[in-house]
Amino acid sequence: MLSVASMYVLSTEPEPARYGVAMLSGGVVLLLVGIVGPVRIIYQGAQIPVEIRQMMIVQALILPLSGVVFILSGLMNTPASEAWASFVVGLSFLVSALAGFYPLSRKLPDTFYAGEMLGIIKSAGLSGNKAHSPADRAFMRWTHGIRAGVPVGEAAPDAAVITMEGDTVLLSSYFGTKPVVLNFGSYSCPHHRKRIAELHALMQAWQHRGVNFLTVYTAEAHPEDDWKLAHQYVNDAEYTNESDFCFYYAKTIADRKAMAEWLIEKKHFKMQLVLDSMQNSLLKAYNTWPIRLYIINQGNIAFCGEQGPFGYDPASVDLALAKLIPGK
Fold first, then answer.
1. Which DSSP letter does residue 245 get?
2. CA 310 to the chain's CA centroid
3. How far is CA 21 from the centre of its chain?
4. 297 - beta bridge partners?
5. DSSP characters for 309-327?
6. Strand (E) positions, the chain?
7. 213: which residues sit within 8 A by CB, 6+ positions away?
8. Per-residue CA distances from 69 to 57, 107, 302 (Å)
9. Rounded distance, CA 57 to CA 160, Å?
10. Going by C-beta distance under 8 Å and a sequence separation of 6 or more, which residues neighbour residue 267?
11. Where are the extended beta strands (E) located within 93-228?
């Protein structure tokens, strides 16, 4: 018969199966998730917003690495290896949060919800391949995969715009001796809608210094007939029901004007607004899809904002104006 002391020793001995199975199972899951998810997405090269891509690159490194660490721990099958594996994987996930998700979160408007972010990622077609990605299709259609805008110092491209009164004029007719902030966007871009309060604050801060502001209404970012975002308007104050919020690519200048009027009415949009032509001349010349900000000074590019949606940041314009017009 075993003594009480012997029974205690036996009861506290490690159970190899528990360590091995748990570590091996966890490792295989992480490895498969990493390869089937982020690694495959990056490898297939679909055009997606650069900030989402950067986050995916971090996950493509962290998830498979964590899986390998757990698998090695399972094969070693000791309490010490389990402890070290848990520490390394925990540290890896902390790095993932700081280097992947945190930088992306800093690019979001304050009113952006987690569900909306997940909706964008899901709508990009990341569960399929490049051929099935609405994001890739839209980015290639409008930008041909080029992220850069017009370089600072170059002459500002010019083309015809249509006023809300129906007149056709040159964009350059709005350029004077004072800087002009050019805002390119559409109503169906959630980042554009959610940054309008910041745009209005920017105007209020700089208009008294002679800075002019002009929005060029361009092709829709997320129409029903291309890169659709499901239920993206439900958190907007003007939302009524889904049938009222089905917007398509404009086929005529009247369609584009109607969408611009919707933006002005529903968002109480205060900035002067003109329409890009149906040839989308300015969208192409400034590479503004889906949204982008510029400053034009004396006919030249004084500031080119990052590509939207996540690179769209009115605060960066404020900093650029402070350098351009010192003594605010």
1. G
2. 4
3. 39
4. 300
5. TTT--HHHHHHHHHHHS--
6. 160-163, 168-170, 180-185, 212-217, 272-276, 292-297, 300-304
7. 180, 181, 183, 199, 202, 203, 206, 207, 271, 272
8. 19, 32, 49
9. 40
10. 187, 193, 196, 238
11. 160-163, 168-170, 180-185, 212-217
Give the amino acid at 102.
Y
* pLDDT (tens digit per residue) in 201-232: 999 999 999 999 999 999 999 999 999 988 89
- Tell me what pLDDT residue 2 has: 45
Structure tokens at 43: 């490898």
Domains plus CATH for the chain?
Answer: 9-106 (no CATH), 130-324 (3.40.30.10)
- Write out the two tokens for 203: 């105007």
Identity at 48, one-letter amino acid code: I
Q: Is the pLDDT of residue 5 over 60?
A: no
Residue in this structure with the two tokens 């998700």, named with its chain if needed: 101
pTM over 0.70: yes
Length of the chain: 328
CB contact at 8 A, 221 and 227:
yes
Report yes or no: 133 and 226 within 8 Å, Cβ to Cβ: no
Contact 184, 221 (CB under 8 A): no
Amino acid at 22: A
Return the number of other C-beta atoms located less than 10 Å from residue 326's C-beta: 7
Amino acid 65: pLDDT = 85
State mean pLDDT over 129-134: 75
Paired tokens of 291: 């949204």
Q: Which of 83-87, 113-117, 278-282, 317-321 bottoms out in mean pLDDT, i.e. has the lowest?
A: 113-117
Instruction: Provide the CA 243 distance to its chain's centre, in angstroms.
Output: 26
Cβ contacts of 107 within 8 Å, gap of 6 or more: 51, 310, 311, 313
